[in-house]
Amino acid sequence: MRVLRTFYILVLGLILASCSGTTFVYNRLDVILPWYIDDYAELNGHQDAYLDEVLTPFLNWHRKQELPAYLSIIDDIEAHLDDTLTEADVAEIFSEFEAAWLRIEAKGLGWLLDLGGQLSDKQMANVIEALWEQQEEFQEEYLERDDAEFYEDSYDNLLDNMEEFLGNVSDAQRQQLRLAANALQRSDVEWLKERAEWIQELSVLLDSEPGWERAVRDSVQQRREKPALKYREIYTHNMSIIFNVVAAVVNSRSERQDKYLRNRLAELREDLKDLADQEAP
After folding, report:
1. Per-residue pLDDT in tens (0 to 9) along the chain, 281 residues
2. What value, to the nearest 5°, has the Cα angle with vertex 132 and ends 128 and 136?
3. How far apart, in whole angstroms, are the C-alpha atoms of residue 10 and residue 37?
4. Which of 105, 16, 106, 87 is nearest to 236 (CA)?
5. DSSP 8-state class, residue 90
6. 155: Cβ contacts below 8 Å, ≥ 6 apart
7. In terms of DSSP H, where are the helices of 28-146?
8. CA 84 → CA 77, 87, 90, 166, 253, distances in Å?
9. Of 9, 24, 173, 234, which one's alpha carbon is 20 to 30 angstroms from that of 182?
10. What DSSP string runs through 118-137?
11. Which residue stretches of 184-211 are H helix?
12. 3-state SS track over 232-269
């Protein structure tokens, strides 16, 4: 079900990407999402029709219920800007975004499993094959890096994210980000190990007797609540480092950066509100 997680992240990512001054991407999710799913299993006409049928209420729900919730998150972020931001504050904001994607998962899992029940054995085999091919690509992309490349990639990611909301960052802020990146632990090995185990488990579940949908749902729940101990330790460590450096850099922002940040949040607010107020296409 990592494909489902990727699907949900895609939904949320497209939504946030659409908040860059245009609503075009968001309003085309009914076209983009089937195209994405088709990368894993080429759907027939009946399956395409079913997907169109279930996507309409799903996207209407998201527009009416979730977009206003994102506005509340922006409210929380803006409220924290008037005080000193703490690691706990950043963790709280992150948990709100995490809860948002979990709601998307809960809402979409049912009809995605129903769609899976309509796939032929060949289509199911294609899904698993696509996941293994993606696994190989990820291994080449991540595991062939040495530690120096890992830390450089981590720094670049932190820098890109901070510049998205602060504009140009100072040399001192770059140094903070560099130190944070160098303190991160590599999670790629553990993540890819978990992913491989999950694909193998999924291939067995999808080849089971009727009722596999419940088994998959239970497995998703179990893996979410009880990730592997080693991966959970690395994840907890890294998120603490990231929350801490985000708070430190934001607290050190200049007047120019403060204005840039507040304007960026205002733009997001305006775009989200416009999207929420629109009628679904």
Report:
1. 344 444 444 444 444 444 444 454 555 555 556 656 777 788 888 988 988 888 888 888 888 888 888 889 889 999 999 999 999 999 998 888 888 878 887 888 888 888 888 888 888 888 888 889 989 999 999 999 999 999 999 999 999 989 989 999 999 999 999 999 999 999 889 888 888 988 888 888 877 667 777 888 787 777 777 777 888 899 899 999 999 999 999 999 999 999 999 998 998 888 888 888 876 55
2. 170
3. 11
4. 87
5. H
6. 177, 178, 181, 182
7. 29-38, 45-61, 67-80, 87-117, 121-138
8. 12, 10, 11, 16, 11
9. 9
10. T--HHHHHHHHHHHHHHHHH
11. 188-206
12. HHHHHHHHHHHHHHHHHHHHCCCHHHHHHHHHHHHHHH
Neighbours of 113 (CB within 10 A): 17
Residue with tokens 């729900």: 61
For the record, the structure tokens of 94 come out as 């992150």
Rounded (5°) CA angle 165-81-93: 75
69: its two tokens: 């919730």
Residue 252 tokens read as: 């050190």
Residue whose structure tokens are 């497209």: 14
Closest CA to 66 of 36, 100, 115: 100
Quote the CA–CA distance of 259 and 123 in Å, as a whole number.
Answer: 51
Contacts of residue 263, Cβ cutoff 8 Å, sequence gap at least 6? none
**Distance from C-alpha of 175 to C-alpha of 170, rounded to nearest angstrom:** 9
Question: DSSP character for 203?
Answer: H
* Short-list 122, 105, 94, 97, CA closest to 3: 105
